[in-house]
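User: Can you help me understand a structure? I only have the sequence.
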Amino acid sequence: MVDENVSATLVFTVPAARVFAVLADPTTHASIDGTGWVQESADQAPLTEVEQIFRMDMFHPDHPNGGYRTANKVHVLDPPRAIGWMTGTEDDDGRLEFGGWFWRYDLAPLGPSETEVTLTYDWSAVPPSIREYLTFPPFGPDHLIDSLHHLAELSAASRR
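Assistant: Let's start by predicting it. Here is the structure, written out as tokens:
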């Protein structure tokens, strides 16, 4: 059986609640992203509930338009232990379609000021019709660990 997900784990010297707060703020996602594809959040509201939709402006040189927008639906929200979202698109009529892949962060407190963070990208539900034109995962092996390092830096800088 072929793996249809990739994960990376890093220990942060930051409390889990602070890491979670950064992840729940979609305006931080462009700074977290390890590929440079995420440009900025089109929605500013914090992620507070399952089924919440938030949009991201993206850029990828292989995309037919270069720039595009994703619609993301929160499907895991367990503060401060887990957050995840499915990525898809929204047509002009507001209809949402999700491609079968998702992002998930699992946070395990190791003490009052240390957190083990695991980032998982899973494409196991991507249908064959999408697999005909997209390769999974669509990024190199360093992407997840780069994203975790960015998240650790942002979380440490967000001391409140």
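Now, to help you interpret it: Residues 12 and 101 are 26 Å apart (CA to CA). DSSP finds four helices and seven strands in the chain. Let me know which part you'd like to focus on.
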